[in-house]
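Supplementary Methods, section 5.1.

A reviewer requested that the exact input to the structure prediction be made available. We therefore reproduce it here, unchanged from the version used in the analyses.
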Amino acid sequence: MINTSKLLTACAAAAVALGLGAAPAAHADNVELRVASLAPSGSPWMDVLNKAASDISDKTSKRVTLKYFEGGQQGDERDFIRKIKLGQLDGAAVTAIGMSMVDESIRVLELPMMFDNVDELDYVADKMWPMFQKRFEKKGFKLTDRGEVGWIYFLSKNKVESLADLKGQKLWQWGDDQLVGAMFKKLGLAGVPLGVPEVDPALTSGKINACYGSPVAAVALQWHTKIRYMTSMPMSFAIGATVFSNDAYKKLSAEDAKAVEEIGKSSSRKLRKTIRAANADSKETMTRKGVTIVQTPQPMVDEFTKQSQDIWKDLVGKIYSQEDLDMVIKTRDEYRAKHKK
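The structure derived from this sequence is encoded token-by-token as follows.
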């Protein structure tokens, strides 16, 4: 005999299979999703996220609302993931550091000196993202479409023109960042482990005199007012995304889950475009406010690249698999072969 209940559930699941997994068997009529972020109020990230939240509320006739705890109100990204697991939060808009608290292998997309331009990164990340979404799904999380932070540069109070100069800095290291920790160790850099909310006061007090970040993050977090120099060489490209617990999605009807997914995808595309423009604008803001962009000498770039490639190999089996690394390199090279100048 055909089990009608199971058949209906399967059909509903198929309707929202794109990125949402199985549809919930039961749902609440009105759902508030509590979402944390380090992004401060008024930043480009929160502007896009708040617009998406408004669209979701309208599309679902206020059956689904998103409440954002912005600016690190809920702690650092490790705290966000812990609180999601405890049911104290439903989701978080995070960088790859937060994502790595769920599945660290996603950091393979942020390896230093891996990509020459954003087109390479987009090509590789788009190809691999569904694989990571499946990994997150198995661990109890919904990984939404990709957002971003942008190219990451060294920011300092003292001019940095060589690795020797960089070694002389009291350089911030995000305490939960094993990838950057491994890189610092390989390069002989003195990292000072701190959470993101601690960086600004540490720059003020002199506990650190250098950090790293994208231009838009440096401006949004006001780090740019406490440093004087930025390297022209980016060390990596930082990504981001919003993650939700699977349990949070079980509260949504199939119709509302589909609306959240569609608006989320559109918002992610808009966010990437917005952040890229904001990074360019923030560079101009930084130079206008007195920050000097120091042209990184080629010997430093060459040495950094060489050491980075060693780091790629060193982290196999620790953060990601050999298969993951091979896939990134193969897909990147595939893009390069298609776009030879």
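The chain is about 50% helix and 20% strand. These observations are discussed further in the main text.
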